[in-house]
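Structure request: Inner membrane protein ybaN, Sphingobium chungbukense.
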Amino acid sequence: MRRHIYLACGFLSLGLGAIGAFLPLLPTVPFMILAAFCFARSSPAMEARLLEHRHFGPHIRRWREKGAISRRGKKAALAAFAFSVVMALLFSPFPWFLIPVGAAMVGGTWIWTRPD
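Returned structure:
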């Protein structure tokens, strides 16, 4: 039963990552890393396909080996956080806009402190 849940979560993450390739604010690589994690526990063949993928494989391996995020990935994530904060400041009343500001500060700090 557990294997089937991991398999379903892996395919869900894979699907969200695929959607994220076309939507600018939905991250792709974190979903692919999550999919690889789920497939490692349910389908070694699918995990191997992700690890061998020419675009996502290096990111997944770098994350697994060093907990590293590429400099380009960091910049993209921080740009998305900045966009979210600007949108919150423009469209949310006080004090509600503080929630995305705080989340961006915490998330952005964590991302920036990961190795390259």
